[in-house]
Amino acid sequence: MRFLNTYGGGTGGVVSNFALLDQIAALNWVSENIQQFNGDPKRVTLFGRDTGAACISYLMESPIVPQDLFHRVVMVSGWSGCPWSRVSAPLSVTLRLAVAAGCPVPDDPAAAHPRTVSCLRSAPLEPLMSAARQVESPAFMPAWGPSEDGVVVAGGRRRASLGHRQVQVMIGFTPWEAWAWLGESLVTKGVNDITFERVARTWVRNTRHHHLREVLAAALQEYTDWTAVKPSPEVRRNLLFHLLGDAGMVAPLHQAADALAHHNKVFMFLCDLASRVPGQIQAPGWELGLIWGTGLSDVTRSAGAPSPPIRPPALTQLSEDVITLLTNFAKSGDPNLPRESPSPGFAAVAWPRYKPETRQYLRIGVPPTVGSQYRAHQLALWSWLVPELEAAGKSYPPDPNSWEVSTDPNLFYGVEGSDMPRVGSMMSLGGLGGSYGGPPDCVKASYEKLHLTADEIQHLTRQVL
Question: Which member of 43, 147, 383, 460 has the lowest number of beta carbons within 10 Å of its beta carbon?
Answer without folding.
Answer: 43
